[in-house]
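Narrative of accomplishments. A recurring question from our advisory board has been how the design workflow behaves on a single, concrete structure rather than in aggregate. To address it, we present the structure tokens for one chain from the evaluation set, followed by the sequence designed for it. No filtering or post-editing was applied between the two.
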């Protein structure tokens, strides 16, 4: 028996055709809507990025306002500390010579804006390591830090020194031990001196500076003596004084290398000393002082009486938190011919006088206490050679050893002025008992 295939309904066929046609039309519509949806998404992302940039700008403006407030509230050194670095304590010249980098605030997310009064971290980057040695409290005549290029330093100073010495002179001869034929001269000499100095330093470049020093000296001596063996035991006092311009000096210093942290700095210098002060041969010497046998100067000199040239080498070695320093030098004084001494009876010829050379060295350590003050301690020693007269060593000339222990303190008053005080204590017999020096360098 034969079966026939089922017949399709015309309605069902028409619906299927309509559905297929609708699907065919829907596919190109979705293809056309896809670019529009993607463009809308990009526009939304751009708007979000713009809003985020606006928030970052507001945060940056707040940070700049905070930084401006810090600049107004803090001085230059405090701001340097906030930036994470700066010059050594008391180094005002270095702070002026090297400009500090401007701080570059880092933007923060808008969800965490900086709060007013909240402690801030270091702003910006620390300055690069300086090629100039750190400044320390000066205790010696030669400074360690050179003047920056184009800058000058005016330094008034006042130095006071006091020394006393006792001397017992046996003028005569002995016939047997403990029996003296002649005079015993007992003398005590007290010396006071004040030296006011005006110093100018100018930086030719960052490694080379020149200096000029103009001193004014006031001296007063009191000699108390007694001649024993003459039937009297009465002390005789004799006062003498002198004042006037001292020996003007000119110096030049040059930094030989680029030091740094744990690297030494070498500074060479050359000093020329004139004889503008009144020398010892120009003042009158009197031998008519009652009770005292040896001749005494009725007026004290203010200068050495000889031209001098002194080369020196200074070494500074920074080793945080201290700075070690030292200097070696040699002073050569040029001889003078036809020297005449003024006495009560007229001029006395001394011939050719050649002073002995002076070998000097010093060393010490400087320590920064805080941003404004520093402390130094050191030792200075000079070995003075014998004096020659007409090519031969003078009969009463001996080599002198001068040793001084020095303490120094420095306090920076402001960006241009610093107060330095140093105290020296004599450790040898020929050295002044005490030396007090006050300096105030003023920079432009």
């Amino acid at each position: 028996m034969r079966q026939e295939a089922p017949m399709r309904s015309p309605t069902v066929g028409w619906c299927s055709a309509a559905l297929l046609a609708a699907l065919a039309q829907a596919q190109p519509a979705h293809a056309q809507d896809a670019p529009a949806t993607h463009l809308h998404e990009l526009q939304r992302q751009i708007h979000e990025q713009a809003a985020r940039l606006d928030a970052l700008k507001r945060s940056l403006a707040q940070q700049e306002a905070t930084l401006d407030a810090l600049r107004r509230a803090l001085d230059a050194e405090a701001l340097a500390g906030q930036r994470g670095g700066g010059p050594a304590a008391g180094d005002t010249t270095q702070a002026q010579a090297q400009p500090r980098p401007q701080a570059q605030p880092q933007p923060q997310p808008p969800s965490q804006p900086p709060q007013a009064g909240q402690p801030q971290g270091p702003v910006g980057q620390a300055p690069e390591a300086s090629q100039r040695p750190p400044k320390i409290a000066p205790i010696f005549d030669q400074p360690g830090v050179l003047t920056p290029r184009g800058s000058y330093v005016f330094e008034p100073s006042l130095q006071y020194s006091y020394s006393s010495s006792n001397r017992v002179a046996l003028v005569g001869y002995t016939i047997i031990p403990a029996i003296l034929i002649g005079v015993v001269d007992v003398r005590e000499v007290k010396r006071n001196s004040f030296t006011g100095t005006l110093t100018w330093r100018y930086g030719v470049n960052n490694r080379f500076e020149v200096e000029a020093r103009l001193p004014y000296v006031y001296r007063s001596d009191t000699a108390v003596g007694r001649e024993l063996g003459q039937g009297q035991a009465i002390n005789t006092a004799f006062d003498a004084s002198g004042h006037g311009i001292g020996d003007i000096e000119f110096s030049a210093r040059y930094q030989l290398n680029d030091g740094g942290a744990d690297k030494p700095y070498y500074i060479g210098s050359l000093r020329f000393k004139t004889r503008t002060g009144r020398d010892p041969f120009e003042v009158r010497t009197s031998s008519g002082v009652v009770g005292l046998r040896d001749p005494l100067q009725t007026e004290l000199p203010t200068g050495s009486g000889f031209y001098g040239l002194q080369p020196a080498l200074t070494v500074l070695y920074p080793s945080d938190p201290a700075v070690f320093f030292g200097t070696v030098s040699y002073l050569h004084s040029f001889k003078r011919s036809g020297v005449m001494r003024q006495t009560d009876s007229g001029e006395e010829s001394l011939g050719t006088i050649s002073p002995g050379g002076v070998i000097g060295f010093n060393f010490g350590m400087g320590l920064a206490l805080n941003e404004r003050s520093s402390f130094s301690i050191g030792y200075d020693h000079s070995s003075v050679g014998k004096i020659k007269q007409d090519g031969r060593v003078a009969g009463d000339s001996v080599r002198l050893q001068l040793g001084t222990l020095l303490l120094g303190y420095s306090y920076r008053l402001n960006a241009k002025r610093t107060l330095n005080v140093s105290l020296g204590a004599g450790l040898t017999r020929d050295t002044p008992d005490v030396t007090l020096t006050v300096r105030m360098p003023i920079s432009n």
